[in-house]
Amino acid sequence: MDPSQVKIPPMKDLTVDNITENVIRINSLCEDERMKYVLERLVSHLHDFARETRLSSQEWMAGLMFLTEVGKICSDVRQVTEVMPHGDSMSHDPKGEPLLVVCTLKDTNGNPISDVKIDIWETDSTGHYDVQYADRNGPDGRFKDSLVVDLGKAGPEYAKKYGVSEDHALLTYDFVLVSDAETSALRERNSKVALDKLGRKVKIVNGLPVPDLD
């Protein structure tokens, strides 16, 4: 879009009280209904937060510097997950306790689903994720004994199947894959309930809520 061709809506003389309205007016030029709604709510919440807490200039700058530093530590491998063969080891931590992870994936009717990729993220023996290491030059996985779930033992069946000892720590995941139709229906229902409580009339566009102004 050529900025010179954009017709900016009439703006009010800027004050602390009307800055939100001015920004929303500018964002109203967005042609995507959902994006326009998201921007409106984001701006409203952020501005209300700033007004409520009376952010100082130093605090505002500290927030900007934090976001700047977050951007600086991103790299071409930070969000990359290495694809591992079935039954392979994803850990390069010699001090970590070996852990066998067994995952099952079924639909909502209990039928198994094949050829699905599962992402697994765990910390290493020191409690760090691989992305927290400055010398990281590729995807890596490091496991740590979980403080949230109870770990079992591999036992004879898994020990024989995966070539590990019977005392090998075992963590099992049972996933249920929900269809797109089921996901959309659930999202629509929950969105309407949540926004009705806020007194907002909404309609669903492409499975996502936007204000219903009709």
TrEMBL record:
One of its GO terms (molecular function) is ferric iron binding. Residues 32-79 form the Catechol dioxygenase N-terminal domain. It comes from the Eukaryota. GO terms for biological process: catechol-containing compound metabolic process. Coiled coil: none annotated. This is Unnamed protein product. The lineage of its organism: Eukaryota, Fungi, Dikarya, Ascomycota, Pezizomycotina.
